[in-house]
Amino acid sequence: MPRFTTITVFAITLALWWLASRSGWVSAFLLPAPATVAETLGELIASGELLRHTLVSLRRVALGYVLAIAFAVPLALLFVLSRRLRDMFEPLLEFLRQIPPLALMPLLMLWLGIGETQKVGIIILSCFFPIFLGVRGGFDSVDRKLIDVGTVCGFSRSQVMLRIVLPSALPAIVVGLRIGLGYSWRALVGAELIASSAGLGYMIVDAENLARTDIVLAGILVIGVLGLLADHLLRLAIRRSAPWLAGDLEMARA
Question: What angle do the packed helices 166-186 and 116-140 form, to 10 degrees?
Answer without folding.
Answer: 150
